[in-house]
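Incident review: delayed structure delivery

Summary: a single-chain prediction request sat in the queue longer than the usual turnaround. Root cause was a stuck worker, restarted by the on-call engineer. No data loss occurred. The affected request and its eventual output are reproduced below so the record is complete for anyone auditing the incident later.

Affected input:
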Amino acid sequence: MKELFISFLKLGVFAFGGPAAHIAMMNDEYVNRKKWVDGEKFVELMSLTSLIPGPNSTEMSMQVGYEKAGFKGLVVAGFTFLLPATLITLILSVLYVEYGSIPTVTYILVGIQASVVAIILHATFNLGKKCIKVKNDYAIGLIVLVSCLIGINEVLSLLIGTASGILMKKNNLFSAGPILSASGLFSVSLKTIFLKFLKIGSILFGSGYVLIAYLESELVQSGLMPMDVILDGVAIGQFTPGPVLSTSTFIGYYMGGYSGAILATLGIFLPSFIFSFLVHFVRNKLTGNANFDKFLKSINAGSMALLLFACYKILISADLSIEFISILGISVTLVFLTKKIPSYLMIIIGGGLSTFLHYIL
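Output delivered after worker restart:
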């Protein structure tokens, strides 16, 4: 448990770049280096996790923890992975309320983003070798990637690709997802804060950035909170390591002080612990079932496409400056040509290079 705690605490400190980057870092640390999880099982868990509500990378930390030490490992890994982001966000929330602004060091993110792209590409290459074995798998991946590129929701794209793969094997698949409809109040009780974030955490599918739409609907449209405050909270969630859903800590603090921050954070992440345990329960019960195995093989190929799509999203949102391209080239070279540099050091190298170039150019 001590090893698990320390390892995920370190990961939580350096987990920049969004869910795909976090998962790629876990692959580097727990599949390639520590050998805690078999590569194929890691891909299967990643694929199943992408179909449940909540922050996927946080849930993957729980999956790895369960593989290492059972249910206690799931709780320790998930809690420890979230701890750095929550504490950093809380500190920045206090500063925001006190001074009305947040620190700006965006130049560091340029190098971090470049390193993240390299880490995700490397993880996709390594995991793809383990789970893509027949021509149909390439077709499934292409279907999912094209679906994402034309604007279809990532979870729905994954299901489309999975269904296509099963149909190729002359099987059938159907699935449906819930829709969020919620309303909230600004000056509310602590109980209400907890229940509202519990509701969001229970039905939040896809990227953590979807949280913006839910908060906008719940708070801004009702005239209870200004959008600029929510966007500032999201900015803090983006800048700090860990999942973007740490924004809940900021909103909770803004609404109800320290108690509000704790309850909002607990509410939005609690469902992830429950769903992550259920993923293992279902997987263990169905392992060996022919139809379930076909389902896994199809969804695994689609998951590789989602990793590539994550790289695409980072690239189109990044400032493709000479600085970014240079650091990207260095990062790709390092991760593909050497196995001695762990992913968290790549994050440090990327941030360090961008800081250096910022001050000399």
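Verification: Residues 56-99 form the longest helix (44 residues).
Action items: add queue-age alerting; document worker restart procedure.
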